[in-house]
């Protein structure tokens, strides 16, 4: 089986719980996860002050194919993601190819809605402003609509990441990963 590659873009003020859950869970499942900064520097200061160092800049990811691109939320981190031309080009190409394109918290509204990437149904952080930006908003921890996966926020991060594992590796791998992490999927 070919290596599964996942791109996780981050910015100043991205949400750290979401970023950690996404990267950790997908790595545990066997994916090669690349964290890319959309900021001028590789080190970003997350929404609650945690500093992380990205593997590369988003520009280094241009022209590469990814099995999944997964955007954490956080504000104004999601706005930084929204305003990155290199990331938006990658997301549009990813979606055009019907490959896993995922976002959580503020990012489905701020990034995906702004750039026409939302499917018929989706979810996001249940703030009225964000909900208004997601026409097919659903009250659910995770919504899968074709190749687009969306989720609500920090507390739904593990289920979101495990749903991405299921989409990339299959239900058995998702359940195995969840069990090893002591996560109840039911």
Automatic annotation (TrEMBL):
<dbReference type="Pfam" id="PF01965">
    <property type="entry name" value="DJ-1_PfpI"/>
</dbReference>
<dbReference type="InterPro" id="IPR029062">
    <property type="entry name" value="Class_I_gatase-like"/>
</dbReference>
<feature type="domain" description="DJ-1/PfpI">
    <location>
        <begin position="5"/>
        <end position="166"/>
    </location>
</feature>
<protein>
    <recommendedName>
        <fullName>DJ-1/PfpI domain-containing protein</fullName>
    </recommendedName>
</protein>
<dbReference type="InterPro" id="IPR002818">
    <property type="entry name" value="DJ-1/PfpI"/>
</dbReference>
<dbReference type="GO" id="GO:0005737">
    <property type="term" value="C:cytoplasm"/>
</dbReference>
<dbReference type="InterPro" id="IPR050325">
    <property type="entry name" value="Prot/Nucl_acid_deglycase"/>
</dbReference>
<dbReference type="GO" id="GO:1903189">
    <property type="term" value="P:glyoxal metabolic process"/>
</dbReference>
<keyword id="KW-0677">Repeat</keyword>
<dbReference type="InterPro" id="IPR006287">
    <property type="entry name" value="DJ-1"/>
</dbReference>
């Amino acid at each position: 089986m070919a290596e599964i590659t996942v791109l996780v873009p981050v910015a100043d003020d991205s949400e750290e719980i979401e970023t950690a859950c996404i990267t950790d869970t997908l790595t545990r499942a066997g994916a090669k996860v690349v964290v890319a900064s959309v900021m001028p520097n590789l080190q970003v200061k997350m929404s609650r002050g945690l500093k992380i160092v990205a593997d590369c800049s988003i520009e280094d990811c241009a022209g590469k194919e990814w099995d999944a691109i997964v955007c954490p939320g956080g504000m104004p981190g999601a706005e930084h993601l929204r305003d990155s031309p290199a990331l938006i080009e990658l997301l549009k190409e990813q979606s055009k190819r019907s490959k896993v394109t995922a976002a959580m918290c503020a990012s489905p509204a701020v990034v995906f809605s702004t750039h026409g990437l939302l499917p018929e149904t989706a979810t996001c952080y249940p703030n009225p402003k964000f909900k208004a930006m997601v026409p097919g908003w659903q009250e659910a921890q995770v919504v899968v609509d074709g190749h687009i996966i969306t989720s609500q926020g920090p507390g739904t991060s593990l289920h979101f990441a495990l749903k991405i594992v299921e989409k990339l590796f299959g239900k058995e791998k998702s359940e195995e990963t969840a069990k090893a992490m002591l996560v109840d999927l039911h």
